[in-house]
Amino acid sequence: MPLLSKEQIQSFLHTEFPQTTVIVESLNEKGATVRQTINDQHLRPGGTVSGPVLMAVADVAMYVALLGEIGIVPLAVTTNLSINFLRKPAADSDIVAHCQLLKVGKRLAVGEVSLFSEGQADPVAHVVCTYAIPSV
Amino acid sequence: MPLLSKEQIQSFLHTEFPQTTVIVESLNEKGATVRQTINDQHLRPGGTVSGPVLMAVADVAMYVALLGEIGIVPLAVTTNLSINFLRKPAADSDIVAHCQLLKVGKRLAVGEVSLFSEGQADPVAHVVCTYAIPSV
Amino acid sequence: MPLLSKEQIQSFLHTEFPQTTVIVESLNEKGATVRQTINDQHLRPGGTVSGPVLMAVADVAMYVALLGEIGIVPLAVTTNLSINFLRKPAADSDIVAHCQLLKVGKRLAVGEVSLFSEGQADPVAHVVCTYAIPSV
Amino acid sequence: MPLLSKEQIQSFLHTEFPQTTVIVESLNEKGATVRQTINDQHLRPGGTVSGPVLMAVADVAMYVALLGEIGIVPLAVTTNLSINFLRKPAADSDIVAHCQLLKVGKRLAVGEVSLFSEGQADPVAHVVCTYAIPSV
């Protein structure tokens, strides 16, 4: 069971990362779901969500899942992120990201994230992400 | 439903890649499971399965899943493979790999593969793999 | 020798991607250097350049290098981008990115990008990126 | 300057990894070059060097470069390896791999490796690799 509630994590994100507008949807065993409402500033020419926005959402999804497992660790940092762009995201749908943690070690955590334009069956992107966890 | 049976793909592997000893366990919608029996030649010092063996099994799992979707395409080639090593594999257990295809386009296919030492709950490695599919 | 001048590519970027503020510094044989001036909107808490900004700069560096090699191809799209975060970027320095193309095929191009906080010897991040090139 | 000579590292590899046939060619500041002589057991159908062989050579190149920087650390392990296959390797040429370390931290080291069929100008594959370094 996650150590923290989604409200605790949402509150932590608001305080520590005031610029993020990602919403924590749910926490579950070794995973999390987050949502990014899409507006014009997230789009690129051609009417699609930009790659850096997808990366940012995936990174937050991973961070939320990790905080749910190990508690508030503000200094955890992304060391590697690999993203595959699979399909063109819809311009007028939220991005919903599901993270599943693959490993939570003492020093490294690895997770994968599938990103969807809400309401579509197939993912728009897939991310694998590694976080370094600071020594206590 | 896969285009080919597991027996057809196993037979193709035996003919085209006679050196592989990977066994096709099952095919399913956009996915496949394969098995590698482990013997001394797959191990490295410390009594664990070597990284290149895990990579090779993941690559075959992806290839099998892809053939199941698009039929026999001998010239499909791996263009990118990214592997995260998560836990030390057991020296005396088979490696079982589950591939799920994330995208099968006309020119590129992307899949992810989770690798397990048989009987363990947590994966020993996770792979994301891209294949280029030749033009007809 | 690049097919296009840096002015031609800068002009194309301004027209097609009006929101980007990346500056094309130089084009060379199978490579390019670009610069991102950093201001508050590129920073995250802790006073460092955010990961998605680094990703965006690397992606533009790769695109510029590719356009220099193959000419204006508006529909080339990123299919995979893998970033390693190596050191904390300075909050008050420009980000300078050097891209070197590793392969320019008919259908795929692969490049690597080293990103620096200007004036520092060691890279803040390293990216490997694949673009799919549309069929003519 | 590397902490160890290439003879010291070659001797360590022979003792600890007796099955490897990789030859340490040179060590330099934050880098190393290694060579794999290719014979039939490294080839796959179509007369080309197999992907897992390329991965294994890149992994050793990274390990050698790392040992040159930090001394003999037998427990350093690969945590992530991402390989792009760029061109078909020649069946009858050695594989030569050049590793350049991008970061050597206390806990993680990251390097990139370019692999060549000897005598060709363009790389056959490119690898980015992360090692975890055990705490002392």
Automatic annotation (TrEMBL), chains A, B, C, D:
One of its GO terms (cellular component) is cytosol. Pfam families: 4HBT. Residues 46-121 form the Thioesterase domain. GO terms for molecular function: 1,4-dihydroxy-2-naphthoyl-CoA thioesterase activity. This is PaaI family thioesterase. It comes from Undibacterium fentianense. The lineage of its organism: Bacteria, Pseudomonadati, Pseudomonadota, Betaproteobacteria, Burkholderiales.
